[in-house]
Amino acid sequence: MTAHFEISDGFIAEQNQDAQTWLTEDYEHLGKQLQRRGVDIESLTERAQSFRVAVPSWGVGTGGTRFARFPGAGEPRGIYEKLADCATINKLVRATPTVSLHIPWDKPADAGELRAFAAALGLGFDAMNSNTFQDQPGQPYSYKFGSLTHPDRAVREQAIAHNLECIEIGQQLGSKAHTVWIGDGGNFPGQQHFRRALERYLESMREIYAALPADWRVFMEHKFYEPAFYSTVINDWGTSYYCATQLGPKAQCLVDLGHHAPNVNIEMIVARLLQFGKLGGFHFNDSKYGDDDLDAGSIKPFQLFLVFNELVDAEINGVADFNPAYMLDQSHNVTDPIESLMLSAVELQRAYVQAHLVDRAALAEAQDKGDAIGALAALKRAFTTDVTPIIATARARAGGAVDPLATYRASGYRQYKAEERPAAQGISAGIV
Ligand SMILES: [Mn+2]
Question: I need a labelling partner for 283 at 20 to 30 A (CA). Which of 28, 183, 264, 388 fits?
Answer without folding.
Answer: 388
